[in-house]
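Researcher: We plan to redesign the surface later, but first we want a full-length starting point. Tokens attached.
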């Protein structure tokens, strides 16, 4: 009786060993890299720039908001927070940084609120012989965030700020408590939108 030839096996024992090795390595790499992936893809098409999580909102409202004066704007569904150590004046030109919580959209905004001033704003920052002029228009949330990002390095560097009003230049955020209040507002806001831990 003639012997039947064995058909060529596709999955030889050697190939199975190689597949197991590469398969395990691939799975291991995926798991390892997933631990270092702090940013998730946004496939929703929504702008998450101003998005706040429930935990960051609760932390702000329960722990940080005690330092702020609160104004409820039920007509807009928003709550405005102004730092309690800001300068308050009936006549002097001032600029307040205001944190706005929009609970309907789970978003937080930062607004530059002129007090005894009109738009557009002209701000001058100076430190160690360097000087920079800022021109700000009344605009939208994205522009206000850009304005604050432009000012932030000067604020953190303890620069001297001046703001232009009808009769010339006046000091802005000059007192130590005001400077600290502005820094606190920035820290609280960026924690709210989960940009900085």
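Model: Full-length starting sequence:
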């Amino acid at each position: 009786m003639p012997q039947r030839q064995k058909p060529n096996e596709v999955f030889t024992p050697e190939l199975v060993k190689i597949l197991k090795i590469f398969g395990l390595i691939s799975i291991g790499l995926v798991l390892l890299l997933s631990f270092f992936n702090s940013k998730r893809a946004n496939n929703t098409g929504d702008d998450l720039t101003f998005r706040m999580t429930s935990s960051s909102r609760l932390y702000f409202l329960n722990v940080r908001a005690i330092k702020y004066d609160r104004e409820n704007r039920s007509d807009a569904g928003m709550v405005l927070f102004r730092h309690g150590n800001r300068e308050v004046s009936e006549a002097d030109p001032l600029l307040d940084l205001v944190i706005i919580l929009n609970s309907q959209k789970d978003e937080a905004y930062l607004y530059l609120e002129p007090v005894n001033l009109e738009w557009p704003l002209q701000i001058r920052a100076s430190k160690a012989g360097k000087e920079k002029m800022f021109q700000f228009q009344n605009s939208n949330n994205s522009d206000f965030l850009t304005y604050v990002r432009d000012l932030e390095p000067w604020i953190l560097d303890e620069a001297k700020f001046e703001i232009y009003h009808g009769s010339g230049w006046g000091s802005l955020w000059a007192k130590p408590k005001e400077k600290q209040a502005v820094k606190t507002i920035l820290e609280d806001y960026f924690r709210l939108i989960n940009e900085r831990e």
